[in-house]
Amino acid sequence: MSSQHQNHTSEVPAVGxxxxxxxxxxxxxxAPQFVLPLVVRIEKAxxxxxxxxxxxxxxxxxxxxxxxxxxxxxEWAEAVRDWQDARIRKVVRRARGAEWRKAGTLPGITxxxxxxxxxxxxPVPLDGWxxxxxxxxxxxxxxxxxxxxxxxxxxxxxxxxxPELEMSAGKAMAQAGHAAQLAWWExxxxxxxxxxxxxxxxxxxTAPRERWSELSxxxxxxxxxxxxxxxxxxxxxxxxxxxxxxxxxxxGVPH
Length: 255
Hints:
It is built from nine helices and ten strands. It has helices at residues 25-30, 50-66, 77-85, 97-103, 131-134, 169-186, 189-197, 209-216, 243-250, and strands at residues 8-10, 34-41, 89-95, 109-112, 117-120, 124-125, 157-161, 202-206, 222-224, 236-241. The protein is globular, with a radius of gyration of 17 Å. It has one domain (3-250). Helix 2 (50-66) packs across helix 6 (169-186). Helices cover 34% and strands 18% of the residues. Strands 1, 2, 3, 4, 5 and 6 form a six-stranded mixed sheet that branches. Strands 8-7-10-9 form a four-stranded mixed sheet, sandwiched between helices. It is α+β, with helices and mostly antiparallel strands.
């Protein structure tokens, strides 16, 4: 793959506990492959902070999943089902200026963070990207945090990044989206409604090195990457630490 068209692609099996789309490995891989496009706005003069972009991408995935167009007989529902039938592959690309404005003309949802803007689109066939998105790229641009992110507020879902892995901003955005989606699948209807009612409040943080082993082995949802870009296959990239899921594991109450 040339650097001109390099994508930050990430995918994991669709294996949420209550997902209606659970399939055996072979069936998933033989199904037509779809991808969820996410485009992050990165203007030269004012790029978003890295953590803000990661959190906005994670919320964008949840906003897409819960949009009425993605459910039941909605206009995006079939594409969403086809996507989750296979692998929940996500591709993050960047845009600015006229490219961003063109992306905004396609059906999708723009989600805003503190400064970040991410537009999420209904899933498309792996080889069937709209031309306005197909020419976009992420390679050559990364994002930084001007200062360390503060501790997450109590009661917030935290998506913990593996401190042992180096990931580009695009890769990390896709991984954070996976983690949010896996957490969503594990929640009850009431827990989902509460999270949605909060505007999908969440934080993305790098786990302390001394806590990663405990987090990744705790029983909380763990994203394991397919290994197509940047990192080794099977690498644990993110742990989804939602208060309701932690309470269920510990026999306590969310806090």
